[in-house]
Amino acid sequence: MTNSQLPVAIVGMAVLLPGARGLDAYWHNLRSGVDAIGEVPAGRWDADYYRPAAAGPAAPDQVYCRRGGFVDSLAEVEVTRYGIMPAAVSGTEPDQLIALDVAAAALADAGGEHGLPARDRIGVILGRGGYLTPGLARLDQRVRTAGQLVRTLGELVPDLSSAQLDRVRAAFTERLGPDRPEAAIGLVPNLAASRIANRLDLRGPAYTVDAACASSLVAVDQAVGELSAGRCDMMLAGGVHHCHDITLWSVFSQLRALSPTERIRPFHRDADGILIGEGTGVVVLKRLADAERDGDRVYAVIRGTGVAGDGRTAGLVSPDPGGQTRAVRQAWRAAGLDPAAPRSIGLLEAHGTATPAGDGAELTTLAEVFGPGSGLADEERPVLGSVKSMIGHTMPAAGVAGLVKAALALHHATLLPTLHCDDPHPRLGATRFRTLAQARPWDRDPDEPTRRAAVNAFGFGGINAHVVLEEAPAARRATAPGHPPAPPRSPASPNPSASCCSRPTPSNASPRCWTPTTPPSWPPGSIRPARIPARDRPGSGSSHRTPNGSRSPAGPPRRAGPGRGAAMYGCAPPRCSAAPPTGWRSSSLVWRASSHRRAPMTSPPTSACPRRRTPGRRPGWARGRAAGSRTSGGTDSMSSAWAGCWTGRCARWASYRTRSPGTASASGRPWRPPGSTHPAKWTDSWPSSTPTR
Length: 693
Description:
This protein has 693 residues and is an alpha+beta fold. It has 18 helices and 19 strands. It folds into three domains: 8-134 and 184-476, Thiolase/Chalcone synthase (Peroxisomal Thiolase, Chain A, domain 1); 135-183, no CATH class; 513-519 and 531-654, no CATH class. The strands form five sheets. Strands 1, 2, 5, 6, 7, 8, 9, 10, 11, 14 and 15 form an eleven-stranded mixed sheet that branches. The longest helix has 23 residues, at 134-156.
């Protein structure tokens, strides 16, 4: 075989997946075999939709499964740090905000701002499905369902006057939430990629692809093509899926694709269906030669990619081993390797949906391409895995979840387990593969010095993708057994992605305008006031984190000084020249601003109203504005006036958080503020009044 594809290095990665906010948590879960599947979180959809499988046949408004992979407690995005206006946030699909945050974290993991090539040489390609998302569901109800409701009522109850019908329409649409026409642009699916390019100022190609469950690997294939053709020097590729709308669950329930036992068991003899998961993953790609030249840390090398369709088959949605085989062989041909050669592969991350038809077809493909396992000892067999056993089927993001898993396995030289496969599928014995119940070291074979892995992603409807990976060249492999130096996001660590959206910080720069480094805690779906963490509340007795990351004894509560307008940086970068020192906590500034419940819409510039600085305190924005600006080389009076106007707004914006992935939907309930009379039962409504701040 001849090598026809340029080797491409994975130099950065980031994920938000069930049970894992960041690479550290994901790697821990993969290695430890953590089952991140759980019940549908309270707030996703009404419990009345649930009816166990034994209760009767499938119905459009009923589902028989209520377990899946969710990221509710992990999905945190400080939208103001990207300069996103609140009017746009309310109409933006949550998956776009999450994709933006994960992409920024991936760039930070790849080295951050200083490691980027020219911005017109950086592109973004994301896999994203065209599913009914929360925002689109609300829009459809506002436009079409409201009209149908009024017409039907008028026909059934002719005595209703036009005024009464108008009141019905108004009451129905009011419960769908605020209507801002200018925010509707946030519902366009392609904006998942376009928003990343726009907010991070990446000027190469930016678009989404929809190839069902193969979407994210098809995106990787497209990104590799851009690099190989020389049109780009860096590509972001991946997938995003954060749609748990009850309508989607109903469709899979009617298809009987969901597991009646509510357990996902890839390659198990009694596997009976999928469990839906959600998540986002992004990888940063560069040509291997460029990565080696630049001294990048390389997780793994993409040696070949392949994409092929099933063509004409017995059924449109039935998996076909023929199409899968073509995609796998195409990728290995591009890599210049023979998949059937002894020791050609050590790990194959399978599609592994845990459906009887899907697992059977995939095992047939593996036997056809990689050959039978007759005569092989158990230790000589490569490992077959499926991360879906831990996080569920993340749909368009399934491929990148497996790709990141395989890259981490190569990077850490560890073979990873698959859960719930104690009684393997009968066809597994016809392949050369085996499954693992526990992680173990990936020992180097003396006859094959290069560790190699591969990833499958087979899409609903007949689109198939395959990627061949190799470990990084020895000269660029990390020597430390732990995670590489660039820390991925985790709930307890600062957000490294700030550097991708901030300007470089001179050593003597003032943190008067900067993007937050620690996102607030926001549950998914609507807009709600932020709360100050207990450790940062006045009088809590806890310590405070200093700019260098250490903790100092608790003292008088800090006031939100010039940093109170943190979001202003994203609104007008030319006005702000400094980012905060690495590790500086945003809670004492951005979150502290939320404690000013009645923040004014404007704050007058008060350069003539200095106030004596007090040790342990920051100058306030209003009367202390002069102290903050004069001591740190502040702005002129005109800039101060401009900033004062914006800061009141930013303080108000910062007191809200966006929650995701979209429970403020046609089937979900938004946050209910304290004292609200909004009914406790799950409804399709929003509070009719403005939330108390």
